[in-house]
Amino acid sequence: MHTAVLVVGIGVFAFIAYSDVRTRRIPNALSLAIAILGLIRIILVHDLVAAEHTLAVAAAVFAVAFLLFSCGTVGGGDAKLVTAVALLIGYQELFGFLFLMSLGGGAPRGRPGCRLRRRLPKPAQWHLGRPYLTASRSPPPA
After folding, report:
1. pLDDT computed for residue 59 by the predictor
2. Buried (b) or exposed (e) across 21-47, using 16+ Cβ within 10 A?
3. Could you list the residue range(s) of the whole structural domain that residue 32 is in?
4. Is residue 23 part of a domain?
5. Considering the entire predicted model, what is its pTM?
6. Contacts for 56 with CB less than 8 Å, ≥ 6 apart
7. Three-class HEC string of the chain
């Protein structure tokens, strides 16, 4: 059964690579497929301690990947996919995977520093020395 998970995983990763190169997007369905394969692998192992460790490490990977996404260092599809891969490979092999992944993609791109994206507008704009709400197009009456 592990061979079936391996073969399906290779096929999904090949399709992810093709899709990413062609459209610069990683479909959510493909990241979900990798995560489901990871959960199937966890169930097939029949080791509760390894399952707990893998789930905890995958949650930590997601937290770090989300932080890197909010900094603009990695894309959202990359953040979701690396979390799914953490489920698939397990906690024992995760550090080796992350090291090889950083050599292959992270190191050449590397951005120094982290500046969080500003998603919300400022609550007030200054116009003629007086604050007014951003919804208003004209300054308040004098």
Report:
1. 96
2. eeeeebeeebbebbbebbbbbbeeeee
3. 2-109
4. yes
5. 0.71
6. 91
7. CHHHHHHHHHHHHHHHHHHHHHHCCCCHHHHHHHHHHHHHHHHHHCCHHHHHHHHHHHHHHHHHHHHHHHHCCCCHHHHHHHHHHHHHHCCCCHHHHHHHHHHHHHHHHCCCCCCCCCCCCCCEEEECCEEEECCCCCCCCC
Residue pLDDT, tens place only, 50-77: 999 999 999 999 999 999 888 888 888 8
Is 133 domain-assigned? no
Query: Can you tell me the distance from the alpha carbon of 42 to that of 22, in angstroms, rounded to the nearest whole number?
Result: 32
CA distance 106 to 98: 10
